[in-house]
Amino acid sequence: MPKWQALYYEEPIAIDHGEGRYVWDAEGRRYLDFFGGILTTISGHAVPEVVEAIREQAGKLLHSSTLYLIPPAIELAEQIATLSPVPDAKVFFTTSGTEAVELALLLATSARRSNQVLALRNSYHGRSFAAIAVTGNRSWSASGLSPFQVAFVQNGYRYRSPFKDLPDEQFIAACADDLRNVIETGTSGDVACLIAEPIQGVGGFTVPPDGFFAAMKSVCDEHGILFIADEVQTGWGRTGEHFWGIQAHGVTPDAIVFAKGIGNGLSLAGVVARADLMDSLTANSISTFGGNPLVTAGALANLRYVLDHDLQGNAREVGGQLIERLHSLEGTVPIVGEVRGKGLMIGVELVEAGSMTPSPGAATRVMETCKEEGLLVGKGGLYGNVLRLSPPLSLTPAEADDGYAVLDAAIRKAN
Ligand SMILES: Cc1ncc(COP(=O)(O)O)c(C=O)c1O
Q1: What per-residue confidence (pLDDT) applies to 64?
Q2: 144: CB partners within 8 A, 6+ apart
Q3: Does the CB atom of residue 124 touch ligand 1 within 6 A?
Q4: 97 C-beta closer than 6 A to ligand 1
């Protein structure tokens, strides 16, 4: 395995099996899963309805090629098109978020006949050349080679923003003015698109004020610049208040990139875009594995589970209570710089006591203690100093209490 394949923990663990919100490692130790395989496990581990759908499809057909109609893929595409805010939507399935980002950027740059793209600072969009090119995080940018001219704009991450002391309305206006200035000074005006995560995932669950993207999009609209929402982490009700993260901003995107949660662990991703945009490619394109019968049958069962059990509502309730409790650490535990998030997407930014200096060491210590105590949490942020909490959306109040107790003690110990 390559050394750049990042692994968690001093002594990495192998996850052997799971059930509900719990996983067990290869040595039989049980953990409460507060990271959900980087937000992929959305319904829970080994959900019987999803497992059965996969088993049934595996026994029936694994044939894979988009040259033939795939009934579960068609049904799933119809459901996603209906659930999305994109008008007159078409859907294309891929196997990974990276590949879906590639498609969204291909569509926008082809439709606009422009290779200029705007992206947010501190963003993460994947591991191909195009996805790395729009990734604004040095730790995840292995190459400067780019198919695009990319300009990076403000991301609304108030805690580390030059505009952080402004009230919401002025903060948003300052970021939008900055975007206008970047377009005027750093591009030739005919930019293809802006790609943005509604809440930055790898970037440390940074939450811009509601309405932020409406202001950014209205500047884009002045130039005909398309808006791509990368909902790989924020989709499917994860943020509690909305099904898609971008809906907090009253924005209708031209395209949405989705992945992770839709498959609950199966490798499924894709793009939902306005029909005219989706159809704008001037050459054929296929995906051998994208939307194959196994993953789309599983995803259909998973989506049904998410909707039937109102997991979005559960994320709002249980996540809301968890965020409340975590907020109590702000101002009382000196290494807690900021607690932020929506639904079950919660970030805890750790700093050197009483300062704003990022403390990746504290994040590592908290993660290790949590692991010892049977809790898995994630990490992110430009400096690796933000704890990321993103359990399956089926988390129960009792499990939230248990996880909180371990986390609270671990943070206090790292202080
Ligand atoms: C917002 C976002 N976009 C794209 C990707 C890339 O997805 P994948 O790892 O499936 O290629 C990720 C992965 O973490 C992501 O968080």
Answers
A1: 84
A2: none
A3: yes
A4: yes
